[in-house]
Every structure is written in structure tokens, then in C-alpha cells.
Design brief:
Blueprint: E1 3-5, E2 13-15, H1 20-32, E3 37-40, H2 46-57, E4 61-65, E5 68-72, E6 80-84, H3 89-102, E7 105-109, H4 122-128, E8 131-133, E9 139-143, E10 149-153, H5 158-171, E11 174-179, H6 185-197, E12 202-205, E13 208-211, E14 220-222, H7 227-235, E15 239-241, H8 254-260, E16 264-268, E17 271-275, E18 283-285, H9 293-300, E19 306-310, H10 322-332, E20 336-340, E21 343-347, E22 355-358, H11 363-373, E23 380-383, H12 395-401, E24 406-408
Parallel strand pairs: 2-15, 3-14, 6-7, 10-11, 18-19, 22-23
Antiparallel strand pairs: 1-23, 1-24, 3-5, 4-5, 7-9, 8-9, 11-13, 12-13, 15-17, 16-17, 19-21, 20-21
């Protein structure tokens, strides 16, 4: 699907969509717990559905009615299973330790760029503690993970830590030593929040997590609105409702970033709006908010002065090399941007030209291009715009509801 955007004023309000981060974790915990759970998720996406499909193939029963997912846990695990994570890195990295803990002989498939993304050092730790995992995709996983002491670097992927925390909670205990520096810490906090809601007993001291012997139990869980995807309409100047100002989500920091760039932020009962009409450049540490970098770059492209984004080197290992693809997208629309080893340097212009850019099959590049289109004088064409289905299938519908002019070519 290719989308053509004719620049138009953006205004109005939309409701925040469900957080993928919370949805993945709640669904997996429900499948590992004892008893029935009811998970309320107001919107879905390709990544969430990938997790649902995998869990069903591993023996869980999940029924969806409206926005309620009723989950019966994995009680009688199959002897073997085949699961497909599609392009969802969270699904793969969360479920790899869980599959090993369940002891199910499993073939794990993945598509897109996901098979190229690293699984080390998680894979080696799982093998050291009893799992058997093949080197190539589809991954062949067998054996059974033992509880015990694990050591992980804290600057590789918070998803590795999340998967281990869930697996060890299911196994009844263990210890994770996390070597500093720890990046993307808010994602670990989300995991701890969800696990504790399901009854896990986890203590932390000096970057070491002690998982106690506590049974996970089913519960009712409402997935909160997603700050990560709310960043796109907020950066266009729209209003987004249903957001938790006290959320553990790291991408809540988009409000702080916009404020630092000169935006005027208003909030009323979880409804946020940013006046982005007069932004200026600044330095932005992206270590805890890497997913927000493409949309920050989109607004920085027309902010006064220079914006420097740093500590974003892990973006090179996402659905695309997001440092490279963000730079390509901004440049294609007439912006001035340069790559560094760990980020981007953007020199703002009053208005961008417009033009044509691929999405690189990356949902965040597609949506960031639509945000940049709001500051263009000419039309913008986004190729492979269907990439938004990964996290925000209704993105272009919401874009048009807010006054945008996006249509399928």
C-alpha cells in the first residue's frame, strides 16, 4: 500500500490505542498463570496477534469477544509445537525463554528482518542453563530451562531481561544479575509491574533481580494506552486522550522532549496536547526512548536550530536500521540531517519540500514520514505504508480524522 499525503492542518482529538508493551506481557503472564484471566485490549495489531497465535499453538486457549481476551493458561503443554513470531521482536525474545521453561519442543519461525536481529547473549545463557537452541531459523528449541542464576548485560536488550523474568517466575524462582549500564530501563519496569499484578514476588537490589517462589495467578487486567504510538499525533499537534500521566512507559518522555524543544504542553484528565508551532533544537539522550527517535527527528527537521540525538545506537538493529532509514526519510522530504555512530544531527528548516520515501517496511518510519508531511509544502508519498499494521493499523484513519489528507494510491 502506497499513501499520498497532501499537507493539511491537523487538529482534534483521538483516543490512545492499547500499549503493545503491556499487551504482550499481560497475555504471556496469563498463559503461565493458574486460573482464568480477562485481558482488556482496546485495539490490536499484527505484533499483538503474533503473540496470541504463538501462545495458542503452545497450548493456551484464548477467546476474543470485543476488546476482551479471555485466557485459559497452558495446562497440558503439547509435546511439540510450531510458532511464528512474524516480525515481532518482542514476541520472539519474550517467548524464547518461556518456551525453554515450558520444556516444549518448538520450532520458532520469524520473518522480515527479525531472523537477522541478535539473540546473544540471551541464547547462550539459556543453553548454559539446560535449553537446546539451533543456530539458524527456524529455531529448533528443546530441552528444559533450569532455574538458577543468570547474568545479562544491561545495554543489549531489555526484552532479554523481560523474557527471563517471566520464565523464572513460571519456574518458581531464580536470580538475574544485570550488568550496568542498563538501558531502556522503563521496559523492565513495565515487566515487573505486570508480573506483580499476576502474583510474582520479585525483589531488586543493585541491578540484581531475585525471583521468589510464588505462583502466578490469573486476574483481570486492562491494558493502558500506548505512549509510544501517541507520540505521533502529539508531535502533529493533535490531542490524545486516555493516557496515564503516571505510566511506567518510557515513551511518556515524549512530553519532556517536546517541552525541552519549546512546546507548550496541556493535560486534562489524561488528555494531552502539545503546541508544536514554535520548536527549537536541543540535545536529546535517546537511551531510554529509542522508539521515539524517528518522530523526534520528524519534528526536529523544522525546529529552529540544531537537534542532536545520541545514545541511540541500538536503533541500527530494529525493523530497519532506524538511524539510517530516519536520515533517508528526512533527506528525501528536503530536510537536513546527518548520521552519527549513535544517533542523528538535524538542522531545522522552516518548511520541508515534500517528496517520496519508502517506509523500509518499518512502522515507525512510515508514521514519522506522515508527521513530517505536516511540515511540507508539497505532497508526500510513502511507499509500503502498510508497515503501520505492525503496531497501529488505524494510523492513517486517525490521521484523516484529525484533518489530514492521506489517501491510498
Amino acid at each position: 500500500m502506497d499513501i499520498k499525503i497532501t499537507p493539511a492542518p491537523i487538529s482534534g482529538r483521538i483516543e490512545g490505542i492499547a500499549s503493545k508493551s503491556f499487551a504482550h506481557r499481560a497475555l504471556i503472564c496469563a498463559c503461565l498463570a493458574k486460573g482464568e484471566s480477562r485481558i482488556k485490549i482496546n485495539t490490536t495489531s499484527a505484533d499483538i496477534e503474533a503473540t496470541v497465535s504463538c501462545l495458542e499453538n503452545l497450548g493456551a486457549k484464548i477467546e476474543k469477544k470485543g476488546d476482551i481476551y479471555t485466557v485459559l493458561p497452558i495446562a497440558n503443554a503439547p509435546g511439540s509445537a510450531v510458532i511464528n513470531c512474524n516480525e515481532s521482536g518482542s514476541t520472539l525474545r519474550f517467548l524464547l525463554p518461556v518456551v525453554a521453561a515450558l520444556g516444549i519442543k518448538t520450532e520458532i519461525n520469524a520473518s522480515g528482518r527479525l531472523p537477522e536481529r541478535p539473540l546473544s547473549p540471551l541464547k547462550e545463557e539459556l543453553i548454559r542453563m539446560g535449553a537446546e537452541i539451533s543456530d539458524l531459523f527456524p529455531l529448533a528449541v528443546s530441552g528444559r530451562l533450569n532455574s538458577g542464576e543468570f547474568t545479562m548485560r544491561g545495554d543489549v536488550s531489555s526484552q532479554f531481561v523481560t523474557g527471563l523474568l517471566m520464565a523464572l517466575s513460571y519456574l518458581g524462582g531464580g536470580k538475574i544479575n544485570l550488568l550496568p549500564p542498563v538501558q531502556s530501563r522503563p521496559y523492565i519496569d513495565i515487566t515487573l509491574q505486570v508480573l506483580k499484578r499476576f502474583g510474582a514476588d520479585i525483589k531488586e537490589e543493585n541491578n540484581t533481580f531475585y525471583i521468589k517462589n510464588a505462583d502466578l495467578h490469573g486476574c483481570d487486567f486492562t491494558v493502558e494506552a500506548d505512549w509510544s504510538n501517541a507520540a505521533f499525533p502529539l508531535c502533529m499537534g493533535a490531542e490524545v486522550s486516555g493516557l496515564d500521566p503516571d505510566s511506567t512507559q518510557g515513551d511518556k518522555a515524549i512530553i519532556d522532549v517536546l517541552n525541552k524543544m519549546g512546546a507548550v504542553i496541556t493535560e486534562n484528565n489524561g488528555c494531552f496536547k502539545a503546541d508544536v508551532s514554535a520548536l527549537y533544537g536541543c540535545r536529546i539522550d535517546a537511551s531510554d526512548i529509542p522508539d521515539a527517535v524517528p518522530v523526534i527527528a520528524a519534528v526536529a527537521a523544522t525546529a529552529e536550530g540544531e537537534t542532536v540525538i545520541y545514545n541511540a545506537e541500538r536503533l541500527r538493529l530494529k525493523e530497519s536500521d532506524r538511524i539510517q532509514t530516519t536520515a533517508h526519510m528526512i533527506r528525501a522530504l528536503g530536510g537536513v540531517i546527518a548520521e552519527t555512530d549513535d544517533g542523528l544531527i538535524i538542522k531545522g528548516k522552516k518548511i520541508l519540500d515534500g517528496g517520496e520515501t519508502p517506509s523500509f517496511n518499518d512502522h515507525r518510519i512510515a508514521m514519522a514520514a506522515a508527521v513530517a508531511a505536516c511540515s511540507c509544502k508539497g505532497d508526500v508519498i510513502i511507499r509500503q505504508a502498510e508497515a503501520v499494521n505492525k503496531s497501529y493499523p488505524a494510523f492513517f484513519d486517525d490521521y484523516n480524522k484529525l484533518g489530514g489528507n492521506a489517501r491510498v494510491l
